[in-house]
Every structure is written in structure tokens, then in C-alpha cells.
């Protein structure tokens, strides 16, 4: 229904650009995680431990300087939004979605708790995946499991594998549906 009410500019330019942006952000995050996996295999310094001396402002936290730092910020916001969308899309939590002007207080509290847990896990999540090396001054590197190579390696491999699988599945199904629709109309 929303697609039919959308303007031709939205349908022909806005939606494809948004889709390309999401594909690009997903691809970049998977590439960064794959490079982090290679770093983990080659160098022990790639483990997501805490920063020993916080040299804020003296050294860039990205090899690409300011552009890399901006890209890290964009990727962290993308991961935050995609985790919230994924959380509310899961069958277990779809009932937690607020309804306009009809949300009970218990549901509001549940939403606040859920968003607090997701936002608290985001720094550890982005640090474990190697998207950023910045500790957000929370000293999240003190967690013992962040020093365990196997947990961090499997976490990164799981993220890269499952994200790639979802990406290929979504794109290939969309292309397949468009081909069926295109050939179905002609035949």
C-alpha cells in the first residue's frame, strides 16, 4: 500500500538508492570483519582487549584517518539501526512493538529495557567485530572472554558468514522474483 502511494521519484530513485546504500554498508561491514579475521589469524594485537594508554586526539583510530573514522561512525550507526530492526522483526519480539496512542506502560518499559540492552551491547559488538578499536572510554576490554581467541574468531566468522548468507539470499530472491515477474508478464 505504501509503494502505491509513493511518488514516482521515490519509487524510481529513492528506493533503489536506499537499497544500494544498505547493500554497500552491509558489504563494507562484512569486508571489515573479514579483514579483522585475517588480522586475528596473523597478529595477536588484533584481539579486542582494552586500550592500555588512551591517546585520544594524538593518534587516529583508523588507518584511513578522518575518512576511516567517519566510516566507522556510520557503520556503528548502521549496525545499531539494523540490530533494532532485526530485534523487532524477530517473531518473539513483534508483540513488543509500540502502537500509536495505545501502548500500555508495561510495553513501554519493555521497549526501554530492550533498547538499553541493545545500546549497551553495541560498543562490545563493534569492538569484537573489529569495526572500531576505540574503547568508548568504557574499558570494555576488561571482559575475560574478549581475550579468548576462539570465541572472538568464531564470533567474527559467524557474523561474516550469516550476514553474507542473508545478503545473498535477499538479493538473489529479489532478482529471481523480478525475473519471474518479467518473464511471467511476457509469457
Written account of the structure:
This protein is mainly alpha-helical and 187 residues long. It has a domain at 148-186. Helices cover 67% and strands 0% of the residues. It has 5 helices and no strands. The protein has helices at 2-5, 8-42, 65-89, 105-128, 149-186. The longest helix is centred in the last third of the chain and has 38 residues, at 149-186. It is globular, with a radius of gyration of 20 Å. The mean pLDDT is 80.
- Our estimate of the beta-strand percent is under 5%
The largest sheet is: none
The number of helices is 5
H/E element sequence:
HHHHH
> Which structural class should the secondary elements be placed in?
mainly alpha
Give the CA-based shape.
globular
Helix content, binned percent: 55-70%
pLDDT below 50 for ≥5 consecutive residues: which ranges? none
Report how far apart the termini are. Answer: 27 Å
InterPro entries: LIMR, LMBR1-like_membr_prot
Main location: membrane
Membrane topology: Multi-pass membrane protein
Protein name: LMBRL protein
Amino acid at each position: 500500500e505504501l509503494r502505491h502511494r509513493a511518488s514516482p521519484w521515490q519509487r524510481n530513485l529513492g528506493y533503489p538508492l536506499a537499497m544500494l546504500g544498505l547493500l554497500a554498508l552491509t558489504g563494507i561491514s562484512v569486508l571489515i570483519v573479514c579483514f579483522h579475521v585475517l588480522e586475528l589469524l596473523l597478529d595477536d594485537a588484533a584481539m579486542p582487549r582494552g586500550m592500555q594508554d588512551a591517546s585520544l586526539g594524538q593518534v587516529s583510530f583508523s588507518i584511513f584517518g578522518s575518512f576511516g573514522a567517519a566510516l566507522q561512525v556510520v557503520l556503528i550507526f548502521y549496525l545499531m539501526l539494523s540490530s533494532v530492526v532485526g530485534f523487532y522483526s524477530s517473531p518473539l519480539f513483534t508483540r513488543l512493538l509500540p502502537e500509536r496512542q495505545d501502548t500500555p506502560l508495561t510495553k513501554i518499559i519493555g521497549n526501554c529495557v530492550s533498547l538499553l540492552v541493545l545500546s549497551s551491547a553495541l560498543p562490545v559488538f563493534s569492538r569484537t567485530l573489529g569495526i572500531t578499536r576505540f574503547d568508548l572510554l568504557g574499558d570494555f576490554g576488561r571482559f575475560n572472554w574478549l581475550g579468548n581467541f576462539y570465541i572472538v574468531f568464531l564470533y567474527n566468522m559467524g557474523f561474516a558468514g550469516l550476514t553474507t548468507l542473508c545478503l545473498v539470499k535477499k538479493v538473489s530472491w529479489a532478482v529471481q522474483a523480478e525475473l519471474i515477474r518479467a518473464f511471467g508478464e511476457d509469457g
